[in-house]
Amino acid sequence: MAASTLTPGPANAPAADTRWLAVCPAERLVPERGAAVLLPDGTQAAVFRTHDGALYAVDNRDPFSGAQVMARGIVGDRAGEPTVASPMHKQVFSLRTGACLDSPGTGLRVFEVSEAESTIRLAAPAPVGGGAAR
């Protein structure tokens, strides 16, 4: 089962055909700090809880350096847009859309994220070959 970009944005009500991957206990997410999680396909995601309690998940791989460091980025906002700044070269990315606010045309994958039963979950795509996972 591979992870991929899904609906950008903070925690949403899950779609009926979404399969969820439990990635960490909710208490492990400290507001304004990220947590790196290893996905079944070997890629990584960076999961964040902002000061207002919103959840976001983006690719952990910095597209400029190639390093798996976005979970160690600086969480903030730009004109009300929740952001994370890469700890490598300080480019700023929207946590909602993954777009790099400093270099248009570059971005991070964004994962749908939710919290249920004290567990942080990321959405996974339907299995290869079509059909929805239930």
Descriptive overview:
It holds the Pfam family Rieske_2. This is Nitrite reductase (NADH) small subunit. Keywords: 2Fe-2S, Iron, Iron-sulfur, Metal-binding, Nitrate assimilation, Oxidoreductase. One of its GO terms (biological process) is nitrate assimilation. GO terms for molecular function: 2 iron, 2 sulfur cluster binding; metal ion binding; monooxygenase activity; nitrite reductase [NAD(P)H] activity; oxidoreductase activity, acting on paired donors, with incorporation or reduction of molecular oxygen. This protein is an all-beta fold. It has a single domain, classed as Rieske [2Fe-2S] iron-sulphur domain (Rieske Iron-sulfur Protein, 3-layer Sandwich). Helices cover 0% and strands 36% of the residues. It is built from no helices and ten strands. The strands form three sheets. The protein has a four-stranded antiparallel β-sheet with strand order 2-3-4-8, with no helix packed on it. Strands 1-10-9 form a three-stranded antiparallel β-sheet, with no helix packed on it. It is globular.
